[in-house]
Amino acid sequence: MNPKELKWLSGLAVLLAFACVINSLLAPVGQALGQAERLFPGLAADSIDSFTVNRGGTNIVAQRTDGQWRVADPDYPAHPERLQRLAKLLAEATVSQRIAEADWTETGNETTFGLNDDAKAVVRWRSDGQEQSIEVGAPALFGRQTYVRLLGKRDAILVDNDLANWVPHNADDWRDLRLVPENLDFDSLRFWGQSRTVLLTREPSGTWRMKEPIDTGADQSVILQLIKRMQLARIVQIAPGSTATEAEPDATVRLAKGNETLVELAFRKPEGEDEPNIWVTHSTRGRVAIQDDGLLTLLRLPHDQFRNRAIFRRPLDEVTSVTVDTVKKFSVSKKADGAWQVEGERTFPADTLLVNNMLTTIRDGQVIDFIKDNATSEDFKKEGLDNPWMNLKIDGASSTTGTWNEAVAFGTFEDRKSG
Questions:
Q1: What are the extents of the domains in the chain?
Q2: Are 292 and 252 in contact (CB under 8 A)?
Q3: Residue 14, SS3?
Q4: Is the domain covering 45-173 a CATH 1.10.132 domain?
């Protein structure tokens, strides 16, 4: 190659390189980055304010008003996360493959794509005052993909998401059928019926405490079971808007945050042992039915069933000393090295195994019956507590709450047997 040819080729290479740079600068951003083709460019999920789904002649309609989604016929609150998810999938849908009608085969056609009239769902929505639509078919056999088709077109499109799984089959798929949302933030739980009222409040530590009919510690497991039953309960039937009842509720529940009532539920068990459902008048959703899974039974328990039945519930590793006052008074104290020491008329090392067994026995002690609240001196005398045969005092220290002490007085116990 002579010098003239080399110079000419070098100049051509420079021009081609310059042209490539100019082309990359002028190309659209998405194209330059190799961004996938969006099915609905410009569509923003939060701009969608209504959906209409037609599937097999059934119309499912949802509208958003003042930020709240509701499902029509009958009007009912919608499950917001499901509609938000559908809107997000539509806005972010990208084309994985376009399948022209001419390329359909026996194993890849309108029926196998789920786009035939018997299987497809026609989804319409309104965004910024404009209406758009799409036909949604079946999910692909592999991967999170869905067959779709633009309305009025024959060619199929495979999009890169599981859109088919979020298109409802009936209105209940969109309705919020939770009796109480799992994320409802409440700090008081009041329920009444059968001539008694129980008020439970949540302490700053997260522990529940009974405030009515008596201010006392509460059994956390029973309360959490009650709350979990309400959160797991699902509405199985919605009564027409005109349906009403004057019957006295079997139990009423009010969930509140501070002084604000969030949800109030009135439960009524229909007559007849074979009735599987319980009717509930919901403060925001009208009259609905749930399956009888034992929730009403929990709400009708005596208030004593919600009380803390443990005699002593402090962690054993917080205990620093135990004082026993009976025929003779003595204390068992923990030394700095973790060993236990008996202090009284004489001081000597304690048997660690015996001390741990004693503390475990106290820790496992359970109340079997609550005799009387707000007892008087006469009540103490009757039960042998005016002059207890043994007083037990336990001292301890917590890294979070500081020092503490608890005391238990043991009276007499009469085994009352019917004669």
A1: 45-173, 188-306, 316-410
A2: no
A3: helix
A4: no
Per-residue pLDDT, 387:
82
Residue where the block lists tokens 């021009």:
15
β-strand partners of 395: 321, 405
d(CA 82, CA 85): 5
> DSSP labels for 224-269?
HHHHHHHHH-BEEEE--TT----SPPSEEEEEEETTEEEEEEEEEP
From residue 353, give the alpha-carbon distance in Å to each of 9, 312, 359: 95, 19, 10
DSSP 35: P
Q: What is the C-alpha separation between 305 and 219, in angstroms, rounded?
A: 8
- Digit-coded pLDDT (tens) for 30-48: 443 346 799 999 999 999 9
The torsion region of residue 228 among left (phi > 0), alpha (psi -120 to 50) and beta comes to: alpha
Alpha carbon distances (Å) from 381 to 277, 324, 384, 389: 50, 21, 5, 12
Output DSSP code: residue 194: T
Please state the φ and ψ torsions of residue 128, each to the nearest 5 degrees: 50, 40
Tens digit of each residue's pLDDT (9 = 90 or more) over 248-306: 899 999 999 999 999 999 999 887 667 788 999 999 888 999 998 889 999 999 999 99
Specify the pLDDT at position 131.
Answer: 95
